[in-house]
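Q: what does this look like with dicarbonimidic diamide bound?
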Amino acid sequence: MNPDPTTTIEAEPYPFAFQPAACALLIIDMQRDFLEPGGFGEMLGNDVSQLRRTIGPNRRLLAAWRAAGLQVLHTREGHRPDLTDLPPAKRVRGRAKSCIGDPGPMGRILVRGEAGHDIIPELYPLPTEPVIDKPGKGAFFATDLHAILQNRGITQLIVTGVTTEVCVNTTVREANDRGYDCLVPADCVGSYFPEFQEMGLKMIKAQGGIFGWVCDSANVLAVLN
Ligand code: C5J
């Protein structure tokens, strides 16, 4: 791709001034335990189809993004095998029968190196694409994401992944406070709860884009193609 320095992407609350060379695609937590039938998310009683509908749009966006030669980063939520980075409050929160670190359907729950912690095959990172292992909901907390983005001259993020109201929203807010412009394609983010999907997106674009912009991935594909 030999893009214009700035191209406009149709978005809400107003068009996004896309600068391809300074924009990275940040794919949040598309992990087997959250998305796959039989994983931790489904074990907790969640309807994984609400997240799985994002796989197709993310695949198409990722393919076009890679073909354009633009930067991609992935994140995974999880903890060290010895759980030294797991706050006790996070471990017991929810009073579920199985907690983070316990044996789950795809290995120890949200522990790095376990099958369920890894990214789904449909969106698997290339060796050249950084994977940020994050212990929190936000991708900037206790990670080197900000340093990597700064070193690469990134000032804008297209943020996709799961879940809309938790790790996507937290990351967008963290990024916004650090000065990044964030665009969220609505069909590429998912929540187990339709009402949180709707409100999570509204919160981002409300008040003139208080945290960022929202669009459909077709609008991003339109400028990439
Ligand atoms: C993410 C979660 N990735 N919902 N985690 O949103 O606990």
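DSSP finds nine helices and eleven strands in the chain. The two ends are 9 Å apart (CA to CA).
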